[in-house]
């Protein structure tokens, strides 16, 4: 059984204990119940919680958050690479949250994949709304931001640098960059999370030197189309470079970057819905991620309705009363009565 967390007591400082969350939360048969059972055995008054996780089960995260907050212990949180999705919620259990300047937080509304009919999808959407409201309340309380401001962050995959997280109140302190190594298998991550994590892990010592004046001039003179093509190729979405380069609504590189992030999310949504071939059409049509979710739900509901299941009992196919070979005509009946 593979674990996604570890808890160790510090021998030299018995008043402190270390907890590391370093993989997908709630997977591998290890649940919040296991985490909380181990947490209850800690006698130290202070917990140093290190997080480097792409997220996972939101309900496990809720349970872990509440257990940490109700433990009566002083919780110090440090993000080592990325605290994404459900991991960002556990991060908020910290009395103090510190982020090195090369780390990230990613937040969004709860997501789920399911199979069912239209009514079941409607009911589950209500469940997601309730879970989302609970998460939003915690983010609002932590940051002091309005519900509308937090809703804007959670409505999509929002990546925040350490500086941005401190600015809005999700973290308390930014410290100099750390060179950290992923302790979970990145090949299982969605492309958007993998890209952000890879960027976070780039050692400062290997940063490319400042370009020579001539090189800088050449980059400054690069056309918008060239920049779009480079960004698309870097994201592994080169087939859509023409779409973004010719879209008049994308007049700046920042807008193209946002479109690429949306395209990654669309591909992930289509993969979850078992409709990977639909992704290209959505991306080329510049369909919003919200509309893609709605369309995929409709497609799944329609496919479910088309799967007719005959539950009638299989009886004897031989008819006991053969059908009358010739239809009876009303005119023939009246003719017979007149002939009497």
Explained architecture:
With 340 residues, this protein is of the alpha/beta class. The chain folds into two domains: 1-185, 2-enoyl-CoA Hydratase, Chain A, domain 1; 224-305, no CATH class. Helix content is 46%, strand content 14%. The protein has 14 helices and eight strands. The chain has helices at 32-39, 58-69, 86-91, 118-143, 147-154, 162-168, 191-200, 213-220, 224-234, 241-246, 253-272, 279-284, 289-306, 330-338; strands at residues 5-9, 16-21, 46-53, 74-84, 96-100, 104-107, 158-161, 173-175. Strands 1, 2, 3, 4, 5, 6, 7 and 8 form an eight-stranded mixed β-sheet that branches. Helix 2 links the parallel strand 3 and strand 4 (74-84). Helix 11 (253-272) packs parallel to helix 13 (289-306). The model is unreliable at 213-219 and 308-330 (pLDDT under 50). One of its GO terms (cellular component) is endopeptidase Clp complex.
Helices and strands, in order, run as EEHEHEHEEHHEHEHHHHHHHH
Identify the CATH architecture of the largest domain. Answer: Alpha-Beta Complex
Mean pLDDT: 79
Helix amount = 40-55%
Question: Mind telling me the CATH class of the largest domain?
Answer: Alpha Beta
Strand content: 5-15%
Integer count of domains: 2
The CATH H-level homologous superfamily of the largest domain? 2-enoyl-CoA Hydratase, Chain A, domain 1
Number of separate helices:
14
The rounded Rg comes to 29 Å
Low-confidence stretches: 213-219, 308-330
* Overall shape: globular
Q: Largest sheet, if any? A: 8 strands, mixed
Strand-pairing-aware structural class: alpha/beta
- Straight-line N-to-C gap: 94 Å
Fold-level CATH name of the largest domain: 2-enoyl-CoA Hydratase, Chain A, domain 1
Tally the beta strands.
8
